[in-house]
Request: fold
Amino acid sequence: MSVEKSNQIFKHVLAWMRDKNIETSKIAIQKTLFFLKECGIPMRFEFDAYTYGPFSKQIMDAAKELEYAGEITVSHSDYKLTSSFSDTLPEKKKTNLDKKLNKFFSLINGDFSFDNMELFGTVLYCIRALQENGMEPDSNDVIQEFQAWKGTRYSDKNIENAYEKLYPVFSEV
Reply:
């Protein structure tokens, strides 16, 4: 996947969030792009386990490129679109991406708060990590993996609820 196409996806996510009046926080962008990648949307962004869940340095690099081009401003915690910003993703690709973005919106109950993004991103990362190791994880496996990474910051019930929403979607993807 080319840098340009990945950046177009990133920009479309920014535009989609703006259009839905969702704060374009860095964590929301990171976790939304992670979700899309795990749904099979090809992107150059690689994600690793990090403090607040899956993280891609390439997204930060893409944001710097967009800031240099004058399309966004980057603050400590979010991205602001400027008047020069333009969503350059081709229309037919927007339709497919919007379906996945709307699915993500539904899965997280429209809650793009920091804690919810960390929770859902980490649960999905744990599901994928277990699957990559040949397991079909159940909620107990995911809770154990999650807590090995995060400790008890989130309750078993919150982790289990996120798992129950995500696993049916990602058991077949």
